[in-house]
Specification:
570 residues, alpha/beta, inorganic pyrophosphatase (n-terminal core), Diaminopimelate Epimerase, Chain A, domain 1, OB fold (Dihydrolipoamide Acetyltransferase, E2P), five-stranded parallel beta sheet, five-stranded mixed beta sheet, RecJ
């Protein structure tokens, strides 16, 4: 049963509204997102690229730039080693484009998810040595590869790490001991002694910061940096970073440019998904375009997505975009099958009593374990880890809930795994099959989540009567975009709404249209997407209902009207 909670953060909303020429409701929404002092509110409403911190604030930036200048001058061979997900592919492209622009002799290698696994491995170091590589630059990986980087250094290779994952550590007598790799330079804002103010960047933005610094060093026009904003946006949304501060500005700028992108591959991917005449939002990146870029790394090779971004002619780009879109359709079907199998296990075995769900699906394609874990987490509101049988043992991916740091909980079980890493909300791991049951037992034994923690919460921004909604208010709400993690779409609520009429329609009978009247007599159209027939059965015969909603302008046959999109009801 959901628990509806109203956010009760205080401020003088009237005064803020007057100062910034916004409705007090908008002022309240901004406060709810923990944007408080005047400079931050101004940045939130009108922030631009000019407000972003200097890349030189990042620890080791000067060191990394000096190394690369020297290597480029000597025409030393540089290899970028990326990752097979959306953040890894885009950060590889960012570094390749940027280093090539300043004259670097550069190639790339994106590990194969199945054959290579995540990040740098010994065989990749050996291959680099065979290929005469002088310098390795990692992106979206490397911070946890101490042994492999040590091996590269012993082979006289220079290594620069650009990463954004949590800094590895071990607990010794209750004290954390940080475990940094012996790289020549490490760019990762999560280092405790790094002065860069924004800690929640994705891998592609960390890589972009390096390119900004290099362009400044080489006197390249800032105008050329504009080509990177849409990639920063795609990676930030695709890797589910918080859309606050710098991230929000980058995503806003990137989305604005994406519709008219000069990147031929992105243009064809947009066309292949029928978005060329639409305003592209963070939703389209997170749920349409991003999954296509991810699909190649899941079911084929991420090199195909990198080839799309690098494509120079439209015909090749269109073919690659079509391939990625088709791969994503296959991925969706596999995900649905795996999700149903996982639900069956939770519903029919002792797993259902666990607070941390560890689900072993031996035949599931390892690339979709994380997506299935996310779907199971959404359904049961519990930390969920899906394990599968890979070529070299058990591999898995986890997704968490607020209040449960998956990375920190995995640290406590480090002896059961051969490799692991991640964030508080997501992690990847591998282990021997014999440890699966012990892993499940120990995670649940260590878990301190209460029943209340496991009850899904619906956070309401503003209890607001539908009679207050105006076109101007809806237009002001759009100032808060882009929406996503850390800057969620506002949630409004009203109780005591009478249902005047309702009907279900849509090819899959998954849309309900209703006409509602609030206590003041205001009549408002509403729409509900999902289990529409169940929704209509619930509201039938009820004197009144309570709903959470989001207001929007509905355009139908050229006519515009205000309606609410109903999200929850009781």
């Amino acid at each position: 049963m959901e628990k509806w909670v109203v956010t009760a953060k205080r401020a003088d909303f009237q005064a803020i509204g007057e100062k910034f020429h916004i409705d007090p409701v908008i002022a309240r929404l901004i406060r709810n997102r923990d944007v408080t002092d005047e400079s931050k509110i101004r940045e939130y409403l009108t922030g631009t690229i000019e407000d972003l911190p200097s890349p030189w604030l990042m620890k080791d930036m000067r060191k990394a730039v000096d190394i690369l200048k020297e290597k480029i001058s000597a025409q030393a061979k540089i290899r970028i080693i990326g990752d097979y997900d959306i953040d890894g592919v885009t950060s590889t492209y960012v570094l390749l484009k940027g280093l090539t622009r300043i004259g670097g002799k550069v190639d790339t290698y994106i590990p194969d998810r199945v054959a290579d696994g995540y990040g740098i491995h010994e065989h990749l170091i050996n291959r680099a040595e065979e290929d005469g590589i002088d310098t390795i630059v990692t992106c979206d990986n490397g911070i946890a590869a101490a042994a492999e980087i040590d091996m590269a250094r012993k082979k006289n290779m220079t290594v620069i790490v650009t990463d954004h994952h949590e800094i590895p550590y071990r607990e010794i007598n209750g004290t954390r001991q940080v475990l940094l790799p012996p790289a020549n330079a490490i760019l990762n804002p999560k280092q405790s002694d790094c002065d860069y103010p924004e800690k929640g960047l994705c891998g592609a933005v960390v890589a972009f910061k390096l390119i900004i610094a290099l362009y400044e060093e080489y006197g390249i026009s800032r105008k050329e940096l504009e080509d990177y904003y849409e990639l920063a946006a795609i990676a930030t949304v695709g890797d589910v970073m918080d859309l606050q501060g710098e991230n929000r500005i980058l995503v806003k700028e990137g989305l604005r440019r994406l519709k008219d992108t000069e990147n031929i591959g992105l243009r064809e991917l947009i066309r292949a998904n029928g978005l060329e005449d639409m305003k592209i939002t963070s939703y389209h990146v997170g749920f349409v375009l991003g999954p296509c870029i991810n699909a190649s790394g899941r079911l084929d090779t991420a090199a195909r997505s990198l080839a799309l971004l690098n494509a120079k002619d439209r015909e090749k780009a269109a073919r690659l975009a079509g391939d990625l879109t088709a791969l994503n359709q296959s991925r969706k079907a596999l995900t649905e099958k795996g999700k149903e199998e996982a639900i069956q296990m939770v519903e029919t075995t002792s797993l259902g009593q666990d607070r941390v769900l560890v689900i072993f699906l031996p035949d599931c394609h390892e690339s979709i374990a994380g997506i299935i874990a996310g779907r199971i987490r959404e359904k049961y509101h519990r930390p969920s880890i899906v394990l599968t049988r890979g070529e070299t043992g058990i591999k898995g991916s986890g997704r968490s809930i607020e209040g449960y740091s998956m990375f920190e909980e995995l640290v406590k079980c480090a002896d059961l795994m051969t490799q692991f890493g991640g964030h508080p909300m997501a992690a990847g791991l591998s282990m021997e099959e014999k440890n699966v049951e012990e892993f499940r037992r120990r995670l649940n034994e260590n878990c301190t989540l209460t029943e209340e923690d496991l009850r899904p919460k619906v956070i309401i921004d503003v209890p607001m009567p539908v009679s207050y909604i105006t076109r101007e208010l809806i237009e002001q709400i759009s100032l808060l975009e882009p929406f996503g993690k850390g800057n969620t779409k506002p949630v409004f609520a009203q109780k005591g709404l009478r249902v005047l009429e309702s009907r279900v329609f849509g090819k899959n009978r998954n849309v309900a249209k209703v006409k509602l009247m609030d206590p003041s007599g205001t009549v408002m159209d509403g729409v509900y997407f999902g289990e529409a027939e169940e929704f209509v059965r619930f509201i039938d015969g009820k004197d009144s209902i309570s709903v959470t909603y989001y207001p929007e302008i509905n355009i139908f046959r050229g006519r515009e009207s205000i309606q609410i999109v109903i999200q929850n009801y009781c």
